[in-house]
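[Automated response] Your request has been received and processed.

Submitted sequence:
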Amino acid sequence: MTDSKVQASAGAAMGEPVALEPTEAEIDAWAARERQRRESWLNGPTDEERAAYAESLRERRLAEAFDEGERRIGDVARMGVRMGRETQLAAEGAVRIFYRWSRRTFDELVEAGREWEEETSLPVRRRRVPLDDEGS
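Generated structure:
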């Protein structure tokens, strides 16, 4: 506590009126501190402050780079797990569809394939084979 506050507290305890204004000495001390603060601000940081700031900046950037690397690794791992699961589900779905495929449907597909081949294939060129009677 400052002297004026102690005096104000003591004066209040004795029933004396309390001064709410700062004393001339308090104003001068504050002005001196403020002048010194502003002067040091105008002078800029010291070499030690610059070095400390550069070190903290380097550490922060290193930490950010590390965090970014960890985030990327996590993303790749999650994507790998998801892709593996989706591949498993696709394989299981294919087996299920194939298993539920009835024999009748399979036979219908085979028959449709044969019909398509007959419709689209070139006609077979037939040769006439002479019989033994005709040639003699």
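Summary generated for your ticket: Residues 45-116 form one domain. The chain has a mean pLDDT of 83.
If you did not submit this request, please reply to this message.
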